Amino acid sequence: MTIDQIHQSFSHDGSVPLMTLSSPSGAxxxxxxxxxxxxxxxxxxxxFDLSSYRKIAIDPFSTHKLSPTQLTDIQHNINLxxxxxxxxxxxxxxxGYGGHTGGAFDTVPEVCLMDAFFRACPDRFLPVxxxxxxxxxxxxxxxxxxxxxxSPEFLRFYRKGGSHLPGHxxxxxxxxxxFSSGRLGHMWGTINGIAMANPDKVVxxxxxxGSEMEGNxxxxxxxxxxxxxxxxxVLDDNDITITGHPSAYLKGFVLEKTLSGHGLETVLxxxxxxxxxxxxxxxxxxxxxxxxxxxxxRSMAPGITGVEATSQGHDAVAIQYAxxxxxxxxxxxxxxxxxxxxxxxxxxxxxGTGKSDAMRKVVGQTVVDILxxxxxxxxxxxxxxxxxxxxxxxxxxxxxAAFPEIYVQSGVMERGNFAAAAGFGMHPSKQGVFxxxxxxxxxxxx
Length: 446
Fold this sequence. Notes:
alpha/beta
């Protein structure tokens, strides 16, 4: 397969071996991954035709409105990409490795439009799908497959050990990946620097309502405005995070008001599922001077029955929802593969403490056990537990269920929440409780 170099940037690492079935290293890697399935996939053929993706070019500087043909082509690409993302991220769910479907699924319309812009005006854009939500990495892997860096057969091993398809993009590991991105809230600052280094280019950054809760983004916004950087944000505002709806638990946080308050003069709000409306907003954003934002309102995972508008779309869509979705879309072979027994387990026995569980799942239950020993009045007056949108991940939701009177459901704001817990605990008879992942604790250390 010929490599489409349209999305290569200054950071492209050509030393990373291609993950293609026609390359010796890729074929060996694929054979090793297949061996873990014990022959249940002997007749496997990737169940989508990625060659049907329409590599169209649309110049936003001269095209004020999409033509019927352009609209049809973009909608075709949206449907194809969304179906493929549901399929291979749900492979991650079926195999036990998890992943994330909803964010990548949501942002497909804006990604397809960005791709059309890049192809029309490669000299005016930095043609990379920078995304500060690293967990939406399915977008990057799909585009790498469309560009020829990865044979699509690899995608079903999403997040599996040895697949080189980890849960966040890692520059230098996966061919075709142009940047690394991890936790929320750190990418905008980096994008500012990229824009400074490329002052003659438009630089897009995909973001979200969750990302914009982070304090780092406030600092990045001030710099972008002060230096009038040519940074264009396209933000998925689906009002869903791991623990619920920000509009309910974080009252006062409104994305448009936040961005305008930082000084962005062009903040456009659109229905992200209306392609013509989305195109017009993205076009206006591109031609405007300085930093701009397009806020895309939509439900999480629109069109996936049982998942839409719920936090279940944040993780990899469970096969109980993916299978009927794919079957209804006519992808019978894709649905059939998800029914196979692809889940693997650790084959090694261990001696010691008995059955083990993920450390993060033990945290919340342990805190519940400790709090249960306290007198109810003492507990209410002396303990405050604050969550940084990881209630379902560190099992802090167990604390919320058991002792809602001491629980503060907060947003993706590690520094502020940690400081609040510390401030509460400054009183000698009070204790603040905070938890997050080690990788996310970097926000606190900053």
